[in-house]
Amino acid sequence: MSCGARLPVYVIFTGVFFAAYAGTVLWSLYILGIVLAVLMGLLFKKTLFRGEAPVFIMELPPYRMPTAKNLMIHTWEKGKHYLIKAGTWILAISVFVWFGLNMPWGVESKKDSYLGKTGQIIAPVFAPLGFGTWEAASSLLTGVVAKEIVVSTMSEVYVPETGEEQQEESPSLGEDFKEIAVSFAGAFGEAGKNVFSTFGIATMSAEEEEGTTGLKTAIAKVFTPLSAYAFMAFVLLYLPCFIVLVAMRDEFGTWKWAGVTIIYQSVLAWVVAFIIYQGGSLIGL
Length: 285
Hints:
Blueprint: H1 7-17, H2 22-46, H3 68-102, H4 114-126, H5 134-142, H6 149-158, H7 173-197, H8 206-222, H9 225-237, H10 242-252, H11 256-282
Helix pairs in contact: 1-2, 1-8, 1-9, 2-9, 3-7, 4-5, 5-6, 6-8, 9-11, 10-11
């Protein structure tokens, strides 16, 4: 099911490649997710969860109108529990991603960062899907934190720095630490916004919206309408955000089903994107 955090990805690509039919393309992605959810549910019912369904009995308490006090107490307790647990995990993964983009120290090109090198290693996996570049692969890796981070990462790796931002002389150690501190503070703020995006609230600030102009120009050069749609379908279907996996672990009491979800959704996303791109190429789209 497509959450609100994926919407910024759809907005960028539909705006570039499907401007005249943006609503229809966006609608088709939601329909694709619903259809595949039903089909996979039926498949799992006959395979992983086959057999007689257990009897479900739940005793319902007497219905009463809730009091404002109890409502506020329960809301605060549940909200606090979520913010502490989700915020901790999301912050930790966001910091990890930041270090991946900025390490080793003094790296001049994102391609040479740890995340960029990892993207280069896995990029061939996405080549049959139409987006086998290290930039796309790196962006999908960061989407594990929250799907809208795919857009911000693509802005980092696709849009080159302007001449004004490039330094002719090597920065001093103090300047390095200052830049690291500022960047880390920005990553911390981004992590805070990602907590709210898990609720389905995916917003784009005016500064971010303005910054997407360069990104739109860049992706227009490296994607085609067909590969763009395959990419959006992959983002729709591939493994859920990390906090969802944590919630699954808490519900099932084990990481087993979270691991199953990672494998099956990644495979499903690859297969669907492969069918879209290769099938579209065969018929000349």
